[in-house]
Each structure stands twice: as C-alpha cells, then as structure tokens.
Design goal:
Largest sheet: none
Oligomer: single chain
Order of helices and strands: HHHHHHH
Structural class: mainly alpha
Strand content: under 5%
C-alpha cells in the first residue's frame, strides 16, 4: 500500500488528537511509522521487538506488512537488514534465535 503524504499526516494528526498517556510512547510510534516507510517491514521487524511493534500498530491503527514495503528504499542503511542477507530463516532472526542479527543501528 502506498499512502500519500497528506494521508500520512492525517493519520498522525488523528493519533495525536486521540492519544492520552506518556508522550514518549506516541513519539516512538510515529518514529517507527516514519522509519518503516523507508526501511520496510523486514528491517523493522528485526530492529524492533514484537511487543513494541504491536503497540505502535494499535496506537496508529495500521498493519506494518500492509503499510510498509517489504524492503524499503533505504533498507541497506539498516545494519539489521544487512545482517538478514546472511541468514536463511527470516522468522528465526526476528525471534532472536539467530545471534548477531538484531540491531537498531543505521549506517
């Protein structure tokens, strides 16, 4: 799914208007949304833990796999994505069963 910049801003504005709680949670969710558009869901699933992803998706009312490209235009900047290129089982890497893959670093 490709979303226009206008629709993206509307989505974020709606979430801000409805949000109650710790602002860091909201800003983390918005950051996840913005990075995910550029890195893709594969990199994001390795960069973030499952619980955080579900929280962000619920807060902003979207599904990462439907909203983000599988591999985004900036995926190669993610050390996690680079490490994924060397593994044969993506889901084991996501679960943390393959050491040295999970990373939040961007190059």
């Amino acid at each position: 799914m490709t979303i226009s910049d206008k629709k993206l801003v509307e989505k974020v504005d709606k979430a801000i208007a409805a949000f109650r709680g710790d602002s860091r949670r909201l800003s983390n969710a918005i950051g996840y949304l913005m990075l995910g558009r550029q890195f893709g869901w594969r990199a994001m699933f390795v960069m973030y833990d499952k619980k955080s992803i579900k929280d962000y998706e619920k807060l902003l009312e979207f599904d990462s796999r439907e909203f983000f490209p599988e591999i985004g235009p900036r995926a190669n900047k993610s050390l996690a994505y680079t490490a994924l290129q060397k593994v044969t089982n993506f889901w084991k890497a996501v679960k943390g069963e393959i050491p040295g893959v999970r990373s939040t670093e961007i190059q």
